[in-house]
């Protein structure tokens, strides 16, 4: 709003709007929004990190896949039979 | 030995990210000066903009990974596509909410159907669809192929999001140029972008490793069935037979 006012003043009166008038349009406060935003960002990242740790502990409890003989999925589209190779983690 | 080294490297990276993000929060909340018109509320930009930037980068990475899977068929690309989509969704969803929170005190509304906002919402919805597709398809090969196709189609929306402020009259401001922003503000913004990018990369690396583990479990042969009970001995020849 103050930007528009300043433009209009400059355009029609050829004088810039006084600094005090500009500050009248300034938004004051808003720390509630700011704290909420930073907290949301941090909590979101922490929650995802916790999810990754949980997933990792779940996967580490599973027995390792049975050792598979033969070559890997040469064409990269292993069907169940063609998956008889190094597990994808070996790629 | 090598495993221990990698583990230590991972934890160092994680603690480094915590430190980077903490310093970034201090820069955004305390160090950077308030903006002339928006006042203190502008500090939300130091998290909103980096989150959206990281989300768009993840869309690009997901697009490359999907192409990589379709062309090479390597499972590592499928795992990378999964992790970039997930991390992109995390950053994109939070980024959009942060934008809405900033919009209330500055625009007077949490949401308007402005071109940039609408395009971002569509992009998010499409990626939630991609994520759901991955969750609900059971057969690994089909899931990888279908989600790669959906990922490539979904990425077409990213340029629309990016250029929407130039293509349409929008309440959302255009991209900030180098000369439009004061030095301290620019530093805080760039610093936070790097801090969140490092964190996102760590998430992608860890999630890709976990996805590869999940794949190897899915693709492994089922455990051998229990041995059948010993067959009864063959009936002896009838002694009464002639």
Provide keyphrases for this structure.
heterodimer; A: 91 residues; mainly alpha; 3 helices; 54% helix; B: 242 residues
Describe the structure.
The complex is a heterodimer of chains A (91) and B (242). Chain A has 91 residues and is mostly helical. Chain A is built from three helices and no strands. Chain A has helices at 2-13, 19-24, 31-61. The model of chain A is unreliable at 11-18 and 68-91 (pLDDT under 50). Chain B has helices spanning 2-31, 45-72, 75-107, 115-136, 140-155, 157-167, 183-219. In chain B, α2 (45-72) packs parallel to α7 (183-219), α3 (75-107) runs antiparallel to α7 and α4 packs antiparallel against α5. Chain B has 242 residues and is mostly helical. Chain B is built from seven helices and no strands. Chain B has a domain at 51-215. At the A-B interface, α3 of A face α1, α2, α3 and α7 of B.
Summarize the model shown.
With 91 residues, chain A is mainly alpha-helical. Helices cover 54% and strands 0% of the residues of chain A.
Shape of chain A: rod-shaped
Count of discrete alpha- or pi-helical segments spanning 4 or more residues of chain B: 7
| H-E string of chain B | HHHHHHH
Counting helices, strands and paired strands, the structural category of chain B is mainly alpha
Count of extended strands of chain A: 0
Oligomer, anyone? heterodimer
Q: Radius of gyration of chain A, rounded?
A: 31 Å
Shape of chain B: globular
> What is the overall number of helices of chain A?
3
Percent of sequence in beta strands of chain A: under 5%
Helix content of chain A: 40-55%
Poorly predicted runs of 5 or more residues of chain B:
none
Mean pLDDT of chain A: 66
The main pleated sheet of chain B reads as: none
Strand and helix order of chain A: HHH
